[in-house]
Amino acid sequence: MSTPPPPTTTTPNGRSSRVFSESDEIQILKCLVRATKSISPPITTVGTPTINRIIKRLNDKFSPSQINDKLRRLRDKYHKHARNKSLVRTHHDRRIFKLSKRIWGKKTIPRKKKNEMGSEKEDGVKNLANFRYLVAEFSRVLPGNEVWKEKMMGMGEDKLRKMDQEWVFLKVEEAKLVARKAELIQQQIMEVMGETGSANGV
């Protein structure tokens, strides 16, 4: 038995238009989430390629203007529900809200707290393994001293990343210096010893 077509409504200009089903709404939002997964929310514009992808996902049942209008309505619905979550009553409402939040929700900002001087700072990091060069140097210079680890855990991630990068750059410079020293000593041995130095494997 064939599946009946979606119901239609008549617009004020006398034209009929298809009604979006709950399944259509979910498919629209899922498609938009996949298309914008590399972009931080909120999404402000939806390009033509994405609109065409949504249309194809819905088996060409709707026009670009209908999809754009539906996206606008879904966005307005999300903001309305975000202001008053008591309006999110049904299972479908909850699914729509969860997907819409990934598209039009505000980007999460790291929580900040007051330090002893009263100024704000970012929460401390939870894993020092991301700063292995910095940790390696402190472990070498302060063996058996765990206080510095506790202090680092209370510092901001950006600060620790900068400190770690400073050691990375220094390691690179040290490697260049070692290579330069090896080159220099070989050059000077040749100048002093001539071919004898080279023949002896120096």
UniProtKB/TrEMBL annotation:
<dbReference type="InterPro" id="IPR053932">
    <property type="entry name" value="GeBP-like_DBD"/>
</dbReference>
<protein>
    <recommendedName>
        <fullName>Glabrous enhancer-binding protein-like DBD domain-containing protein</fullName>
    </recommendedName>
</protein>
<comment type="similarity">
    <text>Belongs to the GeBP family.</text>
</comment>
<feature type="region of interest" description="Disordered">
    <location>
        <begin position="1"/>
        <end position="20"/>
    </location>
</feature>
<dbReference type="GO" id="GO:0005634">
    <property type="term" value="C:nucleus"/>
</dbReference>
<feature type="domain" description="Glabrous enhancer-binding protein-like DBD">
    <location>
        <begin position="17"/>
        <end position="105"/>
    </location>
</feature>
<dbReference type="Pfam" id="PF04504">
    <property type="entry name" value="GeBP-like_DBD"/>
</dbReference>
<dbReference type="GO" id="GO:0006355">
    <property type="term" value="P:regulation of DNA-templated transcription"/>
</dbReference>
<dbReference type="InterPro" id="IPR007592">
    <property type="entry name" value="GEBP"/>
</dbReference>
